[in-house]
């Protein structure tokens, strides 16, 4: 490893350590307090067990509601993402006057947390799934367009030129030159987002957007923790089933399996049937939806055109606390997920297959608990404040980083490992000189990517009392001070966009060298 690289990472480590220490000094992170009050957390876990399924009948309708919201939200989001992907790629659209603003818009909608979308749509449309659907649609559009645009940037330009040479218009160029090349990636990301929307719907229910999450929130508010665990197990079971089926479909698509044309038509019919069924079951009121969109636009215009600059200093301080929560939570999850990612991989690590499968399920179980729900549990255990936010962000990130790290180990090149094995090197030396140098840059890149996501998450955890700028947002919403919310939104968007840009540059440098 080059000396310059060593000094670079030493510098990053020192800066991170100082930031974490500063966070500790201002009580963002308090180990002695956690140890002292840990009995409250274990008492809460004891109250949750065994899960109370006696009222399972009450779960069924909200569970279907969550499923239907996820279908409609994902479907609408996928449709919304197509023009963003097509017009946001310089390979598809040559004019920077078109693709540059499209890219900016694409990045802009990604910076707004899912819960904030739900809050705004509930304010505009009222309580229930009618507000949850567009919130999920915007969230879906943001993720699908971001992931698919990366595929669109690498498509074959010659295929587009061949369609252009026939004198085709823009719609035909996109239909025959672009979409066939990005279709597999688009489908893969849409299925992934559908799985994600089942979890997200649990979170947005907290602000009244409907679904099974509303049952969970009610159980938590009334301290029915055993019933809350039953709801969590139900949600987790649904996620596992969808995740299993989704992975099978995604694997078939990514491996280039040729589906018969009749199967493709039947799939389209099946999806449209699900969409119609979901809209009908939720009693989707199109007129109310259109009117709500009008209110939503007016609300957003008030927020962005008349921000309350008097509270800028206070909002900046709260935003800094959100960044600290995200940073410390990410640091905790990185330390724990580092060995977990290695243990969850069967490739090159020498871990027995059955044990690796067991370790691989741990991140999947942890990921089933959204940060907001975790924050509520930690507030009940350690009280309101930033500490609950750190623990919620850190615990949830262990699941995501553990999964990403395991996948990173699976992708490392075997030549370096085999070269060390041929010299008779011990298992420790193979790990230190063969696995770790290849896996570590990916691990760090995953952590930086997760930090970017955690800043968004930490910015809304204050809505339940877990510190950060979300506490100011929650207070402003309660008093209908939308100009204050607008100021907070500006800060969140600017902060996330800056971190997103820096994160992308650092991750690119780490992976490409």
Please give a structural write-up:
- With 513 residues, this protein is mostly helical.
- It contains 20 helices and no strands.
- It has helices at residues 3-25, 31-48, 57-87, 96-111, 114-125, 129-152, 157-164, 170-204, 212-221, 225-254, 261-281, 286-305, 312-343, 353-367, 371-382, 386-410, 414-422, 427-461, 469-478, 482-512.
- Helix 13 (312-343) runs parallel beside helix 16 (386-410).
- The longest helix is centred in the middle third of the chain and has 35 residues, at 170-204.
- 43% of the residues are buried.
- Mean pLDDT is 80; it is low at 1-6.
Could you describe the largest sheet, including whether it forms a barrel?
none
Kindly state the number of beta strands.
0
N-C termini distance: 12 Å
Q: In what range is the share of β-strand residues?
A: under 5%
Question: What secondary-structure arrangement, pairings included, does this model have?
Answer:
Elements: H1 3-25, H2 31-48, H3 57-87, H4 96-111, H5 114-125, H6 129-152, H7 157-164, H8 170-204, H9 212-221, H10 225-254, H11 261-281, H12 286-305, H13 312-343, H14 353-367, H15 371-382, H16 386-410, H17 414-422, H18 427-461, H19 469-478, H20 482-512
Helix pairs in contact: 1-13, 2-10, 2-15, 3-6, 3-8, 3-9, 3-11, 4-6, 5-6, 5-12, 6-8, 7-8, 8-9, 8-10, 9-10, 12-20, 13-16, 13-18, 13-19, 13-20, 14-16, 15-16, 16-18, 17-18, 18-19, 18-20, 19-20
């Amino acid at each position: 490893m080059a000396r310059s690289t060593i000094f670079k990472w030493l510098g990053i480590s020192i800066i991170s350590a100082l930031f974490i220490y500063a966070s500790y000094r201002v009580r963002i992170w308090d180990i002695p307090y956690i140890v002292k009050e840990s009995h409250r957390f274990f008492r809460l876990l004891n109250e949750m067990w065994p899960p109370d399924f006696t009222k399972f009948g009450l779960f069924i309708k909200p569970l279907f509601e969550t499923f239907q919201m996820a279908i409609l939200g994902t479907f609408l989001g996928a449709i919304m993402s197509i023009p963003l992907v097509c017009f946001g790629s310089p390979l598809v659209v040559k004019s920077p006057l078109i693709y540059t603003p499209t890219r900016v818009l694409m990045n802009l909608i990604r910076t707004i947390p899912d819960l904030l979308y739900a809050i705004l749509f509930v304010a505009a449309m009222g309580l229930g799934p009618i507000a949850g659907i567009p919130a999920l649609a915007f969230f879906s559009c943001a993720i699908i367009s971001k992931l698919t645009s990366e595929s669109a940037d690498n498509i074959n330009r010659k295929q587009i030129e061949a369609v252009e040479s026939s004198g085709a218009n823009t719609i035909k160029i996109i239909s025959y030159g672009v979409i066939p090349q990005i279709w597999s990636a688009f489908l893969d990301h849409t299925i992934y987002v559908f799985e994600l929307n089942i979890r997200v719907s649990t979170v947005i229910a907290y602000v009244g957007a409907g679904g099974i999450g509303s049952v969970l929130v009610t159980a938590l508010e009334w301290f029915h923790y055993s019933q809350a665990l039953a709801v969590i197990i139900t949600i987790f079971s649904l996620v596992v089933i969808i995740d299993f089926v989704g992975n099978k479909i995604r694997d078939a698509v990514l491996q280039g399996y040729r589906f018969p044309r009749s199967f493709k038509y039947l799939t389209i019919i099946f999806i449209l049937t699900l969409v119609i069924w979901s809209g009908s079951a939720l009693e989707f009121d199109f007129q109310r939806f259109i009117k709500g969109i009008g209110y939503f636009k007016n609300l957003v215009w008030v927020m962005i055109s008349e921000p309350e600059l008097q509270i800028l200093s206070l909002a900046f301080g709260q935003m800094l606390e959100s960044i600290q929560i995200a940073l410390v939570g990410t640091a905790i999850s990185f330390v724990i997920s580092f060995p977990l990612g290695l243990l969850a991989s069967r490739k090159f690590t020498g871990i027995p297959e059955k044990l690796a499968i067991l370790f691989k399920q741990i991140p999947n179980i942890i990921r089933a608990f959204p940060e907001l729900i975790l924050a509520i549990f930690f507030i009940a255990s350690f009280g309101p404040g930033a500490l609950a936010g750190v623990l919620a962000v850190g615990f949830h990130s262990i699941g995501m980083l553990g999964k990403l790290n395991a996948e990173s180990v699976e992708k490392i090149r075997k030549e370096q490992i085999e070269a060390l094995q041929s010299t008779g090197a011990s298992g420790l030396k193979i790990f230190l000189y063969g696995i770790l140098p290849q896996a570590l840059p990916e691990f760090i890149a995953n952590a930086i990517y997760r930090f970017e996501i955690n800043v968004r998450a930490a910015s809304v955890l204050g809505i339940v009392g877990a510190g950060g700028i979300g506490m100011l947002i929650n207070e402003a919403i309660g008093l209908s001070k939308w100009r204050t919310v607008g100021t907070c939104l500006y800060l969140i968007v600017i902060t996330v966009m800056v971190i997103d840009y820096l994160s992308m540059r650092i991750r690119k440098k780490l992976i490409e060298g």
